[in-house]
Amino acid sequence: MKKYILSIAVASFFFTKTEACAWSDPDHDYFNLFTQSIIKDKSYLPFLHNYSDRFYTNYKPSQIPDENIESWRKFFGNQMSYSETDYLVNKISLNDLNALKKGIPNNQLLKKLGNGFYAKYHEAVDYLIEAKYLEPYMRINFVEGADSFYYRESENDKNATQLDYNKTISALTSLYNAAKNPEIKQRYGYQLVRFNHYTRNYDAAVQAFKTYVQPIKLKGAPYYMALDQLAGAQRGLQLGNEANWNFFQVFMNSKSRKESSFVSMKLSDSASFNNIMKRAGTNEEKNMAYFLLGYEDFTNPIPMMEKMYEIDPNSEILKVMAARSINELERNYLPTYYYASKDSEKTLDKKDITTTTTEKAEVKKKELSFWQKIVLFFKNLFGGKKSDKTNGKADQSNDELFENPDRIPTFVKNNSYYWSEDQNQKDFIDDLEKFTSKTKEKSTDEYWQIADAYLKFLKKDYEESSDILADIKTNNPEYLEEIKRMKVLNDIVSQPKIDADYEDHLMKDYAEYFVEKEPVKKDSTEITEYDYYGEAPSTAEFLKDVLANRYFLQGEDGKSFLMSNKLSDLQYNPNSSLVKSVEEFYRKPDKTQFEQQIIAKNLDNVGNIDAFFADIYGDRAMRMADFNKAKSYYQKALKFSGIPRENYERYNPETGNYEKLVYDGSNYDGYNNIPNLVFGHNVWESFQSSDEQSMKADDYSAFPFIKPKMNKLELADALVQLKKIGTGKDAKAAKANQLIGNVMYNTSILGYYRQLFVMDVDNSNGGKYDFWATERQNPYQYYYKNFTYTTFIEPDNFDLAINYYKKAFDLTADREQKARILFQMASAEQGKYYQYEAKHQANIDYSDPKWSEKNDAHQKQMDNLKNQKYRTYFTQLKSQFSNTETARELSGSCSYFDYFMKR
Questions:
Q1: I need a labelling partner for 826 at 20 to 30 A (CA). Which of 269, 693, 897, 902 fits?
Q2: Superkingdom of the source (predicted)?
């Protein structure tokens, strides 16, 4: 019967491990360089290490063969393949089997088996007919209780109680007695045990096992299938210890039922594995009990592994424990992405990116409280631009918020690729290495040599790791593949500098790890499951990260960037030094084969690349008020085809819908269609409103070169002309300087047109419009992976706008104009305060019992500073121009200014 467990999703999220995103998959957060699944006994695959599911699931079900199918295949003389046998036992229809019995088979497989098949195996076929008839009913009936949290989709689902009990028992008993073949006889006994179990006749199920299964001295698949049902009945009788022991026997002797029997053991007895340990008699039972105890309590598995080693150093389950241990180390040593601490950024530079244990403790200490994380999670969840590349991405501080602070960045030091580690990790890897080293000497399985070599790799001893790998002699294809991968890792990771010769070596010997393969075309009829997380990180991705880190440290930022990003990604954080380095690589005439095929392929379509770079440089010159330089760049950007925005949608308040961005020739595209309102001033601060509502034009009649709509070249040219006019001493010069100041303010982080010079398509909220909180020139410390996750453009220089406003103020005699200018200067000065505030956060531990008191004191200190140093022009406006019409209008439209005027 189908059942659905009702759960509280929000509570489930709150009280599970918090990740950077609610949909994050922890098994995608590290590189799977050591393949756990190379263990030879694939029946233990579910017990390898992962976090996403209760059991390891990264394998094909066909890798764990069903011993019941294998038993049937042997019974039928191996004349069918495994898949054919599975089809006959589990999938063929009841009608087809009855047709075979009547001598008129229609099924292709049955025709292939021939007319003599039924005569030879009539007892087996008759059993399969009976089993196929019973199968739809072979489930336990659900009994709903008063406190049940289950919802049943249908009341008509079949279960064992819907069969006539007496008739079914009688028929199975009769078939049992009539059968001559012991294995078939035992299979009928299994059906008797199962039917009694599922009808909740638990005593009868126990008796049926004793009467019909046990006397037949066979311990193949049917026996353990029946033992599994016996244990279930014993659990129903509250015989926990007996049930657990029998489930343990199933676990030991079955291939396909290990996972289910493990779960059953957990359900049967709260002290399950300890009780099994007490009862274990043989070395095999003890070894398995140690495995279960170590698997269940994985805090430090080595003591249990030592006990297992003493029993059997060749044990397959000992390899499972080792694989799990190595995987746990991998997760701590090789995360897929590193987040930098803002506090540590001030002390680290590009040549020394070591993160010390003290710094790591400081990062952890500064974590926000649980509820602060929840608030920020929902803030980020519902923020951002729909369908934009940065959609749903938190800003830098929020990205860091949910990351594990114990994960330490990779870096190169003393010509060695290095993973920092805390003392616990170091102790564990040392202990595991000692254990692996001694086991490889005693075990005949090459697995332990591979494991030892991998641990040497994690400990940066690449030469020793390579020597061990070179000495391994094996024909196991999975082992050979792992050895090959590890040899590549040792070679590349130990390389201190990536130069042209080494890039040639990469393409000659390791091209398969870097050259992307054509995707395999799938049959249109093939059903595939949707992967919400994407493919798991690969060895190739890890190697690309290594190279990206190398290039970064070598000062080749452009190559480092293009290892992980597309050229078009520059639009999201167009900081000048990186753009320049990417352009240098683009223009490099003598690119190596590696650079051409691996790096340059990420120079994706941005229209005209030269125009793309020129537009970025022109924007930077505009932000620096170097209008002549901007003009020269914009002349080279005439072929700019628009800011690349795939699937970008913006909200239309008139329709209430999100509409896909289409450059129709009339809207701003990154170069064209800039309205002359950019020279005006805002009448109220509303980025969501249209510019006609938020902005007001000034009088441009004296400046005919200011067109209603302009491209960037025309805008730069207008500013060049205004700057020349502004060198005069008259009212026109005053107005020219004021208009320049307006453009500088309106295109700053605080202005309505803040998108114009940062490669954006509109002013909607996003990471580009955050006040960057560090003094570093570049927040990327290790490489440029996940470039769009981190916000960075050079901060605005508000003094540029203020200086032009000062010239205008000094040149004009018009008090109304002076009042307007002072208000604009005060607005720009507010931006300077925001920048200061962002760099001087309180950083008070939220767990501090005096947090509120200290936070209030810090805020008071900042408020005093703001009034003393960053209210210059507000104060002047209040003291000297409060009686102007402009001041009165501003008081009516700006609540903050009105509050300031009334203080």
A1: 693
A2: Bacteria
* Token duo for residue 676: 């002359």
At residue 393, the pLDDT reads 31
Contacts (Cβ under 8 Å, ≥6 apart) of 478? 35, 37, 38
Which uninterrupted H or E stretch holds 222? helix 221-236
What is the band of 528 on the pLDDT scale with cuts at 50, 70, 90?
Answer: very low
Helix (H) or strand (E) holding 660: strand 657-660
Q: What is the pTM of this model?
A: 0.76
Neighbours of 10 (CB within 10 A): 9
Q: How far apart are CA 841 and CA 359, in angstroms?
A: 18
The backbone region for 84, taken as left when phi is positive above 0, alpha when psi lies in -120 to 50, beta otherwise, is alpha
> Which amino acid is residue 346, in one-letter code?
K
Backbone angles phi, psi at 729, to 5 degrees: -125, 10
Segment holding 879, helix H or strand E: helix 872-881
Beta pairing, strands 695-696 & 709-710:
unpaired
Using the predicted structure, report yes or no on whether residue 738 has a pLDDT greater than 50. yes
Q: What is the DSSP string of 260-321?
A: HHHHHHHHH-TTHHHHHHHH--SHHHHHHHHHHHHHH--SS-HHHHHHHHHH-TT-HHHHHH
- The pLDDT tens digits for 532-572 are 344 556 788 889 988 998 999 899 999 999 999 999 999 99
Report the share of the chain in percent with pLDDT over 70.
80
* Res 380: pLDDT: 37
Q: What is the pLDDT of residue 243?
A: 93
Q: What is the pLDDT of residue 25?
A: 61
Do the beta carbons of residue 212 and residue 192 sit within 8 Å? yes
Q: What are phi and psi of 710, to 5 degrees?
A: -135, 155
**Orientation angle between helical segments 283-296 and 240-253, nearest 10 degrees:** 100
Task: Supply the DSSP symbol for 206.
Answer: H
326 membership: H or E segment, kind and range: helix 316-333
Phi, psi of 734 (to 5 degrees): -60, -45
**753: CB partners within 8 A, 6+ apart:** 674, 677, 678, 691, 746, 747, 763
Burial 208-244, CB ≥16 within 10 A → b, else e: bbeebbeebeeebbbbbbbbbbbbbbbbbeebbbbbb
User: What's the Cα-to-Cα distance from 473 to each of 59, 359, 463, 479, 640, rounded to whole Å?
Assistant: 26, 45, 18, 10, 59
Start-to-end Cα distance in the chain: 72
Between 199-203, 515-519, 600-604, 617-621, the lowest mean confidence (pLDDT) is in 515-519
Confidence of residue 653 (pLDDT cuts 50, 70, 90): confident
Long-range contacts from 24-30, C-beta under 8 angstroms, 24+ separation: 24/533, 25/52, 25/532, 25/533, 26/51, 26/52, 27/51, 27/52, 27/58, 27/536, 28/336, 28/533, 28/534, 28/536, 28/537, 29/331, 29/335, 29/336, 30/330, 30/331, 30/334, 30/335, 30/336, 30/537
State the pLDDT at residue 505: 96
The C-alpha atoms of residue 433 and residue 451 are separated, in whole angstroms, by: 9
Give yes or no for a contact between 9 and 300, defined as CB atoms under 8 angstroms apart: no
Q: Would you state the pLDDT for residue 774? A: 54
Whose CA is closest to 715, among 638, 808, 622, 797? 622
Q: What is the pLDDT of residue 296?
A: 82
Unique residue bearing structure tokens 């003493």: 310
142 with 150: CB under 8 angstroms?
yes
Compute the distance between CA of residue 512 and CA of residue 515 in angstroms, rounded to an integer.
6
